[in-house]
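Task: sequence design from structure.
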């Protein structure tokens, strides 16, 4: 192929027409993608989230559905001053703006007080430590009951006349009473007397019988001793040995 023919074909209308068409297609794809994503993601739209705190759940659900939003319960809490199913918190907040169809997560008020496990404080902590742990959980404490024992040491927990143990689940709004030592265990009047051995000052002899070595009369003495023992047994029992 000669150079003149190549240049003529390169500058031909057919080649540049195809290039121009490809450019138009790419531009149309970019524009369509941009507007398509804006429509799909609701770009530029924003619905301000209403303040749901203090509302009943059903009332908040109807309000959000009217605005094109959804509601979902994510957690529950307890506030005895508010009615049951009352909304305590929401995410996102009422200042934020969201798109249509967004889910609003809420925390509702439980109709019953939550059950909390009693921590391990019985015979394991002082009254100050036990008070700090229980109040941090949310328990209300009554005036402690004094029992005999080490001063300010926790010996028990009572709720409505029932003795509790570590791990028992108790309603958080039920008051508790601590049983603590009154200190009389350490300050008791009882005493123990220690008596030293009685030293009379005289020479003390050990209670043992001196045994002498065998002698000439040893055999006869032994026989006489045995005979005497036998006689004493006969006299005591009234029977004679055969």
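Answer:
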């Amino acid at each position: 192929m000669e150079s003149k023919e190549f240049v003529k074909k390169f500058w031909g209308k057919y080649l540049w027409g195809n290039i121009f068409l490809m450019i138009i297609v790419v531009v149309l794809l970019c524009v369509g993608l941009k507007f398509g994503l804006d429509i799909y993601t609701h770009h530029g739209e924003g619905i301000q989230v209403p303040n749901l705190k203090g509302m009943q759940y059903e009332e908040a659900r109807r309000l959000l559905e009217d605005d094109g939003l959804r509601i979902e319960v994510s957690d529950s809490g307890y506030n005895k001053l508010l009615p049951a199913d009352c909304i305590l918190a929401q995410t996102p907040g009422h200042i934020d703006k969201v798109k249509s169809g967004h889910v609003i997560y809420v925390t509702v008020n439980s109709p019953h007080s939550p059950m909390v496990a009693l921590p391990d404080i019985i015979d394991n902590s002082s009254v100050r430590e036990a008070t700090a742990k229980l109040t941090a959980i949310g328990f209300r404490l009554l005036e402690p009951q004094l029992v005999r024992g080490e001063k300010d040491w926790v010996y028990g927990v009572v709720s409505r006349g029932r003795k509790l143990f570590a791990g028992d689940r108790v309603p958080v709004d039920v008051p508790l009473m601590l049983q603590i030592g009154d200190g009389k265990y350490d300050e008791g009047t009882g005493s123990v007397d220690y008596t030293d051995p009685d030293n009379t000052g005289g020479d003390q002899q050990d209670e043992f019988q001196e045994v002498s070595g065998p002698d000439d009369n040893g055999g006869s003495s032994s026989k006489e001793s045995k005979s005497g023992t036998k006689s004493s047994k006969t006299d005591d029992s009234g029977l004679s040995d055969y």
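The longest strand covers residues 70-77.
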